[in-house]
Amino acid sequence: MEQVEPLIVDLKRCRYRAMIGTGGIGSGSFFALQGNDTLGREESRSGRFIDRRDYCKLHIVSHYVQTLLGSGFKTIPIGRMGDDGQGLELYDEMKKAGIDTIFVEKLPGAQTLFSFCFIYPDGTGGNLTTDDSASSSLTGQVVEQAEPLFTKYEKRGVGLAVPEVPLEARFRLLALAGRHSFFRVASFTAGELREMGGSHLFNDIDLLSLNLEELAQIAGLDIGGAGEEGVVREGVKVLRSRHPELWVTVTAGGLGSWSWDGAALTFFPAVEAGVRSTAGAGDAFLAGVIAGLTTGLTLGEAQQLGTLVGSLSVTSPHTIHRGIDRVSLRQFLVRGSVKVSPAVQALVGG
Fold first, then answer.
1. In 1, 21, 184, 340, which residue has its Cα 20 to 30 A from 75's Cα atom?
2. What is the three-class DSSP state of 207?
3. Is 305 within 8 Å of 319 (Cβ atoms)?
């Protein structure tokens, strides 16, 4: 396992002992576009490949949760990859990070999930992801095979469901997590949210992680017209009316983030950092939130920790910043003169 200093060394006082999650496992390439104008539907644009490593959502969140919480905590992804060179390399990286790969299946002859990420000169961007990879073949039946682990961590686990595997597999995991009294966390793409609408399936989620565009999709609002805060307030209002018990986090890039814990809407600004790439920052934020909740922080405090992790992650060109741990977070906190709660400051040693 890589030499990192975790946030905690004694899990006995923590809420959770393990995270079991499903989502995409794969990698990708980065392509730097010329010009900051948004790429048009039929536009051709020049650019170049750059030396950056992309990882898919489940791997990103799992990596940060494992390294932040240390070897005493179990991070167990459920997913599929090809037995190609790309998949074998990813499998080895997860093992080295201390992630338990018992339910990561290598499929003979299948292709590992791959993303093509495009980056604008201002550091923003997006990605295109294959939909016929090993990850897309994950089924609910495969997820059900992990039930003994859910039983083992009854009432002491986090269930995570993130994109890049079929919705059916993700909701099967959330149902299993609910059956065993796990804290259930999920995120979705904007397209999936359009498909789901006001689905009752949100009732199987305790914490919904969104970015501003995804929340605007739920609220049926245009960010340019309603403004960021207007979208957040209306979006949370819509979610509250449908799912009163649901907690929500919303990221808005360099602006910051909001959280709703059923009682209060809390805003926390992003921490200024030297941006090399924003790709993966939202997943890093979510991992920080999960780590914070595990250690006993409130949602608002966990949002602060998630902001530190997400903001520091953008200083790496890769979507996993391997230097993030307690030491680097403490140094980042001091350099940025960020005001956080005493509980967060104690956690990072600031």
1. 340
2. strand
3. no
